[in-house]
Amino acid sequence: MPDEGSEREPPQSSWGAVGRYSGHGLTIVGSICLFMAGGWWLDGKLGWRPALTIVGALLGGAAGFYGMWRDLVAGSREKPSGPRR
To answer: What are the CA-CA distances from residue 82 to residues 6, 10, 60, 73, 77 (Å)?
Structure first.
C-alpha cells in the first residue's frame, strides 16, 4: 500500500518528451544563431572579422547548454509537496 506522502507524477507521454527535448535542441541552436549574428554584426562595425563571430558562437552554445542544464538537472529536483513539520 503506497504512502500518502509518496505521490509521484504520472509518466510523461512519449510525445510530451519529444516536444520537451526538441525544444531544448531548438533553444541551443537559436541561442548559437542569435549570439553568432550579434558577433557578426559587431565584427562588421569594428572590423575584427571573424573574432567576435567565433566568440558569439561559443557564448551562444554556453547559454543554450546552460538553459538545457537548468531545465533538466535543476528542474528535476523534487520539490516538497506539503508543509514541513
So the answer is: 11, 18, 38, 22, 15
The CB-side HSE value for 62 (13 A sphere, CA atoms) comes to 7
Q: How far apart are CA 81 and CA 85, in angstroms?
A: 12
Q: Is 63 within 8 Å of 39 (Cβ atoms)?
A: no
Cβ neighbours of 57 (radius 10 Å)? 19
The one-letter code for the residue type at 58 is L
End-to-end CA distance of the chain: 23
- List, run by run, the mean pLDDT of 10-residue segments along the chain (85 residues): 56 81 94 97 95 97 94 73 58
**pTM for this structure?**
0.71
Domain boundaries, the chain: 20-73
